[in-house]
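Troubleshooting log. The previous structure file for this entry was overwritten by mistake, so regenerating from the original sequence record. Sequence copied from the archived sheet and checked twice against the printout by T.R.
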Amino acid sequence: MPHQQSDQKDAESGLAGITAGHTSICSLEQTLRYRGYAVSDLVQCSFEEIAHLLLWGDLPTAHQLEALTERIQRAARSIPQTVVCCFQRLAETSPQTSIMDVLRTGVSLLGQLECDNGPNDAPHSRDLSQERMKAEQLLGQVPALLATWVDCLRGEPPSHWPNKPLAPALLEKLCQTKASDIAATVFNTTLILYAEHEFNASTFVARTVTSTGSDMHSGVTAAIGALKGPLHGGANEKVLHQLMDIGVPENIEPWLARKLNNHEVVMGFGHRVYKTGDIRADLLGDACHRLIYSDSSFEPHHKLEKLALKLEQLMLEKKGLRPNLDWPAARIYHALGLPINLFTPLFVVARVSGWTSHIIEQMGNNRLIRPLAKYIGPSPRPYVALRDRQEIEGPLPKAH
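Regenerated output below.
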């Protein structure tokens, strides 16, 4: 069982194993499930089907799916000119800025232009259908923000959003070429598996912001800021850097020995929740294999796959650690021709579906999230008036 509850109250563990709330969106017990469905079954779906499931609670009918896909496409074509102009100026003056910062700023701007001040109804009597429509809007706008930024960096005006489902449309926009069926299918799978993962750091941040009575755009903006941190969302980028650093098979063992001797983390392995393996890594690893060996155009990536497989075997042998989702995701994005600095922003594109679902759930049954802290500072001490204070020689006293 990957997820065990605990009554432990030791805050130094980063709240590991501590139940911090209830949700009907996602379960990590025994296997990963979205709204009760095993994710191993859901990878057959389109990303839009998963978004509908997370936001509305059920898998869509054919009519509902068609309508949602059209709404997402409309939203992707509705980036306000104010945002486009801002991105263009930013691309001119700060082209090296983090794309995560660009997305965070873009969502914040959209919230301002939308005048999003959160639900107007009193708690516990809210009709949250308007919030779900805001979420659907963001499902189209966030990938469009990413594509718009890439266009701005190229010095081009934003191009028209394709009349296609989100996965092939975004891949086509980013790569500036029509995606093959296998490429679009595997890319779609990455979005599904990145879509939702219970009370992870960014989702908990989004719920905490929402619990204050704040709005959806503020919650998503804060979540993007949390996902920017390398301990949460940057691992997929570091995975590819590691493999590039190793380079050739004969370097694997000395490279890993150095890492382990220096007590350094090998990115892409182990997970805070999954101790016996990440089902997402298994599913995406299979998809990666299908992509890489689908036709001769991916042959240059065979060497990297063999390198990755050897490192997997060594990590299991020496540390007992299995890959997590970021391990195959990085190799898939690389094989699809996507730059490394887009890997984590693509995580954002997918996770907007999970974030907004949790924001709506928090709005529907809200209570301010306000945990306690264990004080570890100085013991009680008497106040000394300014005139009587003396300089302390040497280093300042340490906290207990």
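The first strand starts at residue 26 and ends at 27. Archived copy saved in two places this time.
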